[in-house]
């Protein structure tokens, strides 16, 4: 396991996940960081820079040029390894599994050797100190980079992850994750577990806004991100990515609920 320690971070820390090849959303989150006075060294991405949308190479270039810290997502690991799929572990034949083939092939064709080498070198965990708290940032889980953990997941699942994480990096007070695509905050297994959400796809709540998090001395705020969804949709149409994730950018509804737990209830985030 590769661990990157950022040391002591002062001031607000902006955390986001899943740019998902959505160039417009990625541009918007960096504009948001600048507007809040958050420097690049205080911005962290939880991974999956590349996924559903139309601009994988351009999005990677923007993220790399920004100088922010990035945790490896399953998409980065799979592309770096030259794998044939995204590695999400979708059950064969499900809608999510079938839809992933189209966008992954598009990303695989677009990402070059240098970017794959960058992906291969990304850390599995980023840690830092913030005020009197120790924070660890991961993608999905320690047991499985593509593990889906939701706000309603069993506490035992979180406990398993926290125990393994502490075995690798020592004691932590806050865990920040991504992968599932839905932002939440929960006190569980002796830590504050924060899913920062993703910026590249709306959280299946009927709105076009996506999500990010800001960690301050007062705590964490889960906030909505507004960006040019129409332009991102147009890019997907032009690229021939018309399997359903294109329409999700405008409708705010995912093309499949296969991956969601039945008991999950979705609500709006605070405005960014």
TrEMBL record:
Domain Calcineurin-like phosphoesterase: 35-213
InterPro entries on file: Calcineurin-like_PHP_lpxH, Metallo-depent_PP-like, Pesterase_MJ0912
Gene3D superfamilies to which the protein is assigned, alphabetical: 3.60.21.10
Pfam families according to UniProt: Metallophos_2 (PF12850)
SUPFAM superfamilies: Metallo-dependent phosphatases
Protein origin, superkingdom: Bacteria
Similarity field: Belongs to the metallophosphoesterase superfamily. YfcE family.
Full protein name: Calcineurin-like phosphoesterase superfamily domain-containing protein
């Amino acid at each position: 396991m590769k661990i990157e320690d950022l040391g002591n971070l002062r001031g607000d820390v902006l955390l986001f996940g899943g740019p998902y090849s959505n160039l417009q959303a990625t541009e918007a989150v960096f504009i948001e960081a600048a507007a809040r006075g958050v420097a690049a060294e205080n911005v962290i991405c939880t991974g999956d820079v590349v996924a559903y949308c139309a601009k994988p190479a351009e999005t990677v270039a923007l993220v790399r040029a920004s100088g922010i810290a990035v945790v490896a997502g399953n998409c980065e690991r799979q592309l770096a390894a030259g794998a044939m799929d995204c590695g999400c572990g979708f059950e064969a034949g499900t809608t999510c599994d079938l839809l992933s083939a189209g966008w992954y092939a598009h990303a695989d064709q677009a990402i070059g050797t240098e970017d794959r080498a960058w992906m291969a070198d990304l850390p599995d965990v980023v840690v830092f100190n913030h005020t009197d708290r120790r924070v660890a940032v991961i993608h999905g889980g320690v047991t499985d980079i593509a593990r889906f953990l939701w706000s309603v997941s069993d506490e035992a699942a979180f406990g398993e992850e926290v125990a393994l994480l502490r075995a690798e990096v020592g004691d932590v007070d806050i865990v920040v994750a991504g992968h599932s695509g839905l932002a939440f905050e929960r006190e569980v297994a002796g830590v504050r577990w924060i899913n920062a959400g993703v910026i590249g796809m709306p959280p299946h709540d009927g709105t076009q806004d996506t999500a990010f998090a800001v960690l301050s001395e007062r705590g964490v705020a889960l906030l909505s991100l507004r960006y040019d969804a129409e332009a991102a949709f147009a890019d997907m149409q032009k690229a021939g990515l018309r399997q359903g994730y294109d329409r999700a950018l405008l409708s705010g509804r995912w093309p499949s609920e296969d991956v969601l737990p039945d008991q999950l209830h979705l609500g709006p985030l605070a405005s960014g």
